[in-house]
Design goal:
169 residues; alpha/beta; single chain; 6-stranded parallel sheet; lyase activity; 4Fe-4S; pyruvate-formate lyase- activating enzyme
């Protein structure tokens, strides 16, 4: 499916907001052309969920650039070394950085990264618990104790409302 076909499909559905996600969308063939086509449509709000390992600089010249939700993988994920911290230079207030924490060590690292790169001044910042590995109240207490103003708690409500392993909800 071409970038123009994807744009026409989105338009035919009547939606105004579209999120590119699944795997790593920024690694998909033709992603720059797709973003250029979608970004020209001022009626569409496009968001990209990225795992934070792909450099954003190659997208910086796209007019009306979509917003990015970028994960930062913390130590318990065993993926932290793949994070492209240079991406923090390309973030704006319409973007989001999300830290998924599974431990106090993760929270400490998240705070360090947030402070070092002044992320609260650059983007929306969220900390989300790894389900059943850390309690939400422990994250909130850590945030309070460390005066993490401007950092938000994100909760995966579908894991609370339904069975955590339930798919398609």
């Amino acid at each position: 499916m071409s970038a123009y076909d994807i744009h026409e499909y989105i338009k035919s559905t009547g939606v105004k907001n579209a999120t590119l996600t699944g795997g790593e969308p920024l690694l998909q063939e033709g992603i720059i052309e797709l973003l250029e086509v979608l970004s020209r449509d001022k009626e569409l709000n496009i968001e990209i969920e990225t795992n934070g390992s792909v450099l954003l600089n190659k997208f910086a010249n796209i007019e009306n650039l979509p917003s990015f939700t970028m994960d930062y993988k913390l130590p318990s994920s065993n993926m932290e070394e793949k994070m492209a911290v240079e991406n923090f230079n390309y973030l704006s207030k319409k973007d989001t950085v999300k830290f998924v924490s599974g431990s106090t060590k993760d929270l400490e690292k998240a705070k360090y990264i947030i402070d070092k790169y002044n992320l609260v001044d650059k983007a929306s910042v969220y900390i989300s618990p790894v389900f059943e590995e850390i309690q939400m109240k422990d994250i909130v207490e850590f945030m309070k104790d460390n005066k993490m103003n401007g950092v938000n708690l994100q909760v995966q409500l579908h894991k609370i409302i339904w069975e955590p392993s339930k798919k398609g909800v």
